[in-house]
Amino acid sequence: MRFRIRTLNSISPKGLARLPSERYEVGGDVARPDAILVRSADMHGLEIPASVLAVGRAGAGTNNIPVSLLSQRGVPVFNAPGANANAVKELVLAGLLLGARHIGPALDFVRGLDLDGEALEAAIEEGKKRFVGHELPGRTLGVIGLGAIGVEVANAAHLLGMHVLGYDPQITVQRAWQLSSGVEQALSLEDLFTRSHAVTVHVPLTDGTRGLVNAKRIAMMQRGATVLNFARAAIVDEAAVLKGLASGQLTAYVCDFPTAAQRAVPGVVALPHLGASTSEAEENCAVMVVDTVRDFLENGNIRHSVNFPDAALPRVPATARIAIANSNVPNMVGQISTRLAEAGLNIADLLNKSRGELAYTLLDIDGRVPAGLVERIGAIQGVLAARVVQ
Q1: pTM of the entire predicted model
Q2: What is the β-pairing status of strands 140-144 and 163-167?
Q3: Which pairing describes strands 250-255 and 225-229: parallel, antiparallel, or unpaired?
Q4: Matching fold, domains 1-84+277-308 and 309-390
Q5: Extents of the domains making up the chain
Q6: Which residues contact 116 (CB under 8 A, 6 or more apart)?
Q7: Residue 353: its pLDDT value, please?
Q8: Backbone φ/ψ region at 388: left (φ over 0), alpha (ψ -120 to 50), beta
Q9: Is residue 353 helix, strand or coil?
């Protein structure tokens, strides 16, 4: 079987090279695609062909993808969590230094000096007093969100001599193992803000995290504190931050999301969305998402999906595989098994996983899949999609 992949953006050649040309047709104008690969293109409002089995985002955030709509169609959306972690970590550390040493205003000051010789030297000596900063060791950094990026930021800041507080009530066992023992657990968000000289956020944008950094929490921080936002713009209440800068409660706001309201505001360092903008991060994201999409198309396995559960099952030799996406409702596996029994088929292996309102089932059956079986399974109420994995 030859799979068809449509790309909505320029995807790193290093990632696309992992799709063998004899098995994959890849391009921006591919008709009836089996999968879509995307970076920043907005898919909301885009007519997504019924042939699409998967969507892969070469990055972490999926705000540009209609995940809910695709879930209703039984289409997993894959991303590349952690593939850009080092790139973002480095920028956060740069942001800490930019805020601590007033590097942005200092650069602007020097660029504005139309002098030379002794006059230039005198102006520099006089002007540098305005940019006295502080060193990082001994200061407290609060890290909200201890996923791939948050853990790297916390560990790196600890190695720089900072006292690091971490907060993530949903931290995974894997990330907990990766976290330095020198990182202290904050008891609550309020505990973290109260004790921090700087706070950095590394959480997805949800209804629960929108405006997470707000006026009330900024007021809890050490006076002259720094807020860093390299996650999503709306996680920080911009009006509250600007008010904090005006009052002196905050010294700096370093973010990756410039707006008109921030322009020329003292203390704001706004970068043009550089978080994952390294050649290495783009390659890592592309490789990761291409591998997961390929494994799904060829084997039915799901890894790193934002809407469906992880579900990976080794192939049993001399069997055929059926992959089923369905609503997470009672007796689904029983109804599917009944359809197989009616067809006189034996189940060699089975995996069923659920995540919230969605579930996913992989079935390896002895022999071939008879004509009409997948259609009969697809007709079960609650089944969103079913296919034979070639």
Answers
A1: 0.80
A2: parallel
A3: parallel
A4: no
A5: 1-84+277-308, 85-101+134-270, 309-390
A6: none
A7: 97
A8: beta
A9: strand
Domain 1-84+277-308: assigned CATH number: 3.40.50.720
Residue 47 CB-density burial (10 A; 0-12 exposed, 13-18 middle, 19+ buried) = exposed
Q: Angle, to 10 degrees, between the axis of helix 279-299 and the axis of helix 85-101?
A: 150
Query: Rounded to whole angstroms, how far apart are CA atoms 216 and 213?
Result: 8
**Which of 138, 208, 200, 211 lies closest to 166, judged by CA?**
200
pLDDT value at position 219? 98
CB contact set of 97 (below 8 Å; sequence gap of 6+): 103, 136
Residue written as tokens 């660029």?
111
Q: Are 326 and 32 in contact (CB under 8 A)?
A: no
- Give yes or no for a contact between 223 and 250, defined as CB atoms under 8 angstroms apart: no
Phi–psi pair at 104, nearest 5 degrees: -60, -55
- 152: its two tokens: 């790297």
pLDDT at 22: 96
Q: How far apart are CA 222 and CA 208, in angstroms?
A: 24
For the domain covering 85-101+134-270, report its CATH number: 3.40.50.720
Q: What is the 3-state secondary structure (H, E, C) of 306-318?
A: CCCCCECCCCCCC
What H or E segment, with its residue span, contains residue 341?
helix 332-342
Longest Cα–Cα distance in the chain: 95
Q: Quick one: pLDDT at residue 115?
A: 93
Q: Please identify every stretch of the chain with a pLDDT value under 50, giving residue numbers as ranges.
A: none
List, in sequence order, every residue forming a beta bridge with 227; answer none if it has no partner: 199, 253
Q: Report pLDDT for 1.
A: 82
pLDDT at 167: 98
With residue 170 as reference, give the H or E element that holds it: none
Antiparallel, parallel or unpaired: β 3-7 and 268-270: unpaired
Which structure tokens are listed for 40?
A: 């920043």
Query: Does CATH number 3.40.50.300 belong to domain 309-390?
Result: no
